[in-house]
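Q: I have two molecules that I believe assemble together. Could you output structure tokens for the complex as a whole instead of separate predictions?
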Amino acid sequence: MTLEGKLLIGQQAVAGASEPIQAIDPSTNQRLEPAYAGGTAHDVDRACGLAWAAFDRYRETSLEERATFLETVASEIEALGDTLIQRAVAESGLPRGRIEGERGRTCGQLRLFAQVVRAGEWLDVRVDPALPERQPMPRVDLRQRHIALGPVAVFGASNFPLAFSVAGGDTASSLAAGCPVIVKAHSAHPGTSELVGRAIQRAIAQCNLPEGVFSLLFGSGREVGTALVADPRIKAGGFTGSRSGGLALLKVAQNRAEPIPFYAEMSSINPVFPLPAALEARGEEMAKGFVASLNLGAGQFCTNPGLVIAEQGAALDAFVATAGAALKESAAQTMLTPGIYDAYQQGVARLASHDQVREIARGQVGETPNQCQAGLYVTSAEAFLNDEALQEEVFGSTSLVIECQDAAEVKRVADRLEGQLTITLQMDDADHDAARALLPTLEHKAGRILVNGWPTGVEVSHAMVHGGPFPATSDVRSTSVGTAAIYRFLRPVCYQNLPDALRPEALKEANPLGLKRLYDGRREG
Amino acid sequence: MTLEGKLLIGQQAVAGASEPIQAIDPSTNQRLEPAYAGGTAHDVDRACGLAWAAFDRYRETSLEERATFLETVASEIEALGDTLIQRAVAESGLPRGRIEGERGRTCGQLRLFAQVVRAGEWLDVRVDPALPERQPMPRVDLRQRHIALGPVAVFGASNFPLAFSVAGGDTASSLAAGCPVIVKAHSAHPGTSELVGRAIQRAIAQCNLPEGVFSLLFGSGREVGTALVADPRIKAGGFTGSRSGGLALLKVAQNRAEPIPFYAEMSSINPVFPLPAALEARGEEMAKGFVASLNLGAGQFCTNPGLVIAEQGAALDAFVATAGAALKESAAQTMLTPGIYDAYQQGVARLASHDQVREIARGQVGETPNQCQAGLYVTSAEAFLNDEALQEEVFGSTSLVIECQDAAEVKRVADRLEGQLTITLQMDDADHDAARALLPTLEHKAGRILVNGWPTGVEVSHAMVHGGPFPATSDVRSTSVGTAAIYRFLRPVCYQNLPDALRPEALKEANPLGLKRLYDGRREG
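A: Yes, here they are, computed for all two components at once.
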């Protein structure tokens, strides 16, 4: 399978005409062929035109047709075989096992959404049948279903070249909801993007769907992404990446003539609270688990534990000492891109030079380019409370321990936290009261609260929330991982007295889809 | 019951210290006592402080406790008796029957939300139980529930002094979701607002809830509202009113350090499409129904039919002639405020002076102040397509008929419409194909599509959608009327491996609330 270095617009491969991007193998700093010339305003316009033309047909595909399409995308990705794995490894510097696992997650996610589509709960069908005899006024027949918002702009993330990229979570949930998707590929992995994009193209052709259901654009700067979000035919956006990138696109979405929902998942430092009894009883084991989580994927997870908050004392000192020792042994790992590596170096330098922060340990120094040397630092709660800059995310394997004088100070630090994707409690039975006292605050601050685990590792399931208050995300009402993500791309429409012949299948009185409707306020069994 | 003219902050009545507002009886232009001195930044701060202090307790009230509170609010509003009716009539110029009906709707709405709270579906409980034996990785226990967003800023609307005001839809759905509410009263009906606010205060005291669950602020300009939406303790907003007012507050919500959801319901001209067979068969009856809907409440409904779009010809001419004749007989009705009357006069003058618009009829001239003289105008589809200004809402009993050359031109006009709350089809069996061809476009444009009825009159029920694409609302994903409105003020939180003793009631394994959970992907029966 030869990479062509072209945009994929509907079923066509189109040569770009603006500044090219080219992937770099971060482990060698070698450029990888081919170059991908960027898209132009004309390409954005064509992709949006096709997406809009495909929208009405695609959003009304039957549950079975749409589910089969999602499954076909998964099969086509698997059919790429080792070509995909090799290219993704080369473009990301991530180990082969990780990329294979991520492929499994990506395809599993598509198949899980196929099940969700078939079950049809997302339609949220509500029927209030007419009450012609009601006094003082009769009630008309009212039926509600959810329909797709429209074409969605999806931005590939650097850190999950498969699971949060071209056929990643945002694409899967958009397609499941009935929305055509236009992906702006992340410039770090254009070859991986092309391969997956072609798999989606093939699935569309196999399923006889209109070509505009999917397009894939490349571009070196922000022009293509900005033009995409600004296009009036785009009705929502999904983004995973930096705070500055997410906020810039959010502003574009808000400042349109017609503002649209824009789901940006941005920054999170995922605080960990080791509570006193647990810290006392098993601080050493905890320290090792913490360092393992911190090092996962060179710390390039949205849920990387970048902050540890605990009461000072011998138990915390022992935790820090053990974590420091483990971290010193940590091998350096290749980061995703030279740019991410540079930002990491700057972030660590900023932390290390802070006059209230002391270094506990650094990991092994890298021997090949762009390798992340892990870092562990300590500061006081007072310093943390007095300097917002200490909450800035350092994307990579570095974490900061906050020493608090007592439980009240732990609570004050919790109160001051920005919004997070996750907050972790390490606790034993004797910590229940302390946990109970903290929980309401933690609920204000995070989308997921976890106990005696580590935040890295995000299950793709029904109950998962990968979201949270700003700046973790731009919209606290939703999740970007798990089946509830389908609701991000839907809106309710009510039909009043529409004749049964004209009703969509989901709303017909005979309930041909067998949905558990909310019928006259009662849930059908 | 004597009106005090004070802000209600928690359980206190507090004298304002900024420029006062005073209601005007629009039927006489007489000022109504007392004056309400406006709130200051300090008052906003106090109300927000109390709301935040009340939030954690209020959001964790049991389903029964919260439902009983909503019902107590309804009872306390009813206990105001005729005092409330008289004051609302005086402040709004609306007929007594209408205000009585609106009180019934307001209290019914609170009681319906009490039922919704008790049923607990809004918690959307999802449980993915642990799978310790799963390969290659075990699954942890994951449980999701929805919790309240936080204190909500609600803006009272002029046109429904009860149902969209202090204890109106936004307040009812916020309180149902577990959010404390701070209302910025509409300056047109401060006395009505005070009465209802005191009823809510009494319900809070009776139910032993923290006082910060509700506050009521007054203010003459935009300062109080702006300060309220900007306050970091406010986590969402609800607004019904003008496009300029809604957009200004939306910008405040978006430009905060932490942006928040802001639900503004703004402008809609609610197009009506009489399809050919129906127009031919019953154009005369249809014209009368149309004029009755247009005149309801002096045309001051969000769902007032401000646009009629049909194919030209004898049938449309007859419809227009009949509607014109009915409209000529329409009595003038008092509008809500002198300001709304002035804006109406300007809007009609703008339309009447348009060189492509011709007047068909005007209603009766008023004999008392601020009376709305109905108006019916006609223009061509070509003129409409060439001038966006012809889509501007004229708030009051004026409508514009668009004559189209053929069905294709009807479709082009539909394509060009802005987002709407409602779109109405008048159709007979022979119109099914025409309706089928239009429906996808109408679904893009409106939150509610109705057949052979009139858009005024919005049922408060489960299937209702009172929402729609921008500029009808600022957020197409929701409704402001009906039980689904509770979802506007909720966010998902996931708990991973939280011990059962610490889980909220809704998430305990034994399911003490008897919820129909999504358990391991299957809906419990």
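A: One point stands out. The longest strand of chain A covers residues 142-148.
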